[in-house]
């Protein structure tokens, strides 16, 4: 059973400010693992990563390694990547196709449903019940439109209850595919950052920083994107509740009314994609989708959909986070997908210009958090002008800190319940 919190979190988190210690205190990090990462729904992967029976990939929930498997019957399973004998890492490969897993230490063998098949030198295990030595498993798996989530908690809200209004943004993303399906086949880059995971969580839907942190790439690219993050922007920040937050650029794209401007291109440059969209949705709806584009949403605690790419946050220590990132790929759109990969490499690849800017800020933030004065960090921007939209969600100006306040409200609920 979950024990009561060791900290008075209500004295550390207020409506519009947060105490610096929540970013660097090791004991707080350990409680976050128990109360957030090992209790809530956490994004793990996508069905397209394991398309065939017996496919598997190595994933994680927080710092815990897991195996995401499509077993012999075609069912998705999430198993802990740990041999129950002496705790050895069972599988070191990133992925493959296999019906069994054999521990390299003492050669215990398990099927891909997690059941122990046999011991090496079995004569020493007479009378042992193999069922007692099954692989650990994530007790709850939820799938929404191909996105696979897992929860260590035996009971709790359903995945759809957890996602709430964020489901509409997932639907918006998938509408950009004529087939309505993702095909995440581009592979993942891994960026290791010496900073607490919550700096990334807050930053992903922060519309206040891009005009300054990313000014160099905006000027080099000459894309006009910088104006979307200025005082005259009509874009919105949004709090969906449950920690899910959004930077909504649709008001700007609709004002301009140009299909695929969100993607920095035109229908004439992607004729096959545009034709497939019109065939799938009809002219009017296809035009609406291609104007709105893909969302910019952070789904608590670890899934960030950034228009053209998908990030997964993995906290491995209080001061260390790995960002796994891949280009979005939509089934049946090769011309569109090629450009998605190119833009992803240019922004978050090894020589990319965008993520390097953010990573510098994350690490500077983490170093700064330990400085004693001032102890409190403020999140008050736009507090006086936030409002409810037509669906009842809190929204604010594109540069307001509506998302950050929403994240911390949900965090406080989880850490004190």
Structure, explained:
- Helix content is 29%, strand content 24%.
- The chain folds into 2 domains: 42-151, Rieske Iron-sulfur Protein; 165-416, Naphthalene 1,2-dioxygenase Alpha Subunit, Chain A, domain 1, CATH 3.90.380.
- By secondary structure, the chain is an alpha+beta fold.
- The two termini are 13 Å apart.
- The protein is built from 13 helices and 21 strands.
- The protein is globular.
- Strand 15 and strand 16 (303-306) form a beta hairpin.
- It has helices at 21-24, 26-37, 159-163, 166-175, 197-203, 210-213, 215-221, 250-256, 271-281, 283-292, 334-348, 354-369, 402-416, and strands spanning 17-19, 42-46, 55-61, 64-70, 76-80, 95-97, 100-102, 109-111, 116-118, 140-144, 147-151, 189-193, 236-241, 244-248, 296-299, 303-306, 309-317, 320-327, 376-378, 387-388, 394-397.
Topology, element by element:
Elements: E1 17-19, H1 21-24, H2 26-37, E2 42-46, E3 55-61, E4 64-70, E5 76-80, E6 95-97, E7 100-102, E8 109-111, E9 116-118, E10 140-144, E11 147-151, H3 159-163, H4 166-175, E12 189-193, H5 197-203, H6 210-213, H7 215-221, E13 236-241, E14 244-248, H8 250-256, H9 271-281, H10 283-292, E15 296-299, E16 303-306, E17 309-317, E18 320-327, H11 334-348, H12 354-369, E19 376-378, E20 387-388, E21 394-397, H13 402-416
Antiparallel strand pairs: 1-19, 2-11, 3-4, 3-6, 4-5, 7-8, 8-9, 10-11, 12-18, 13-14, 13-21, 14-15, 15-16, 16-17, 17-18, 20-21
Helix pairs in contact: 9-10
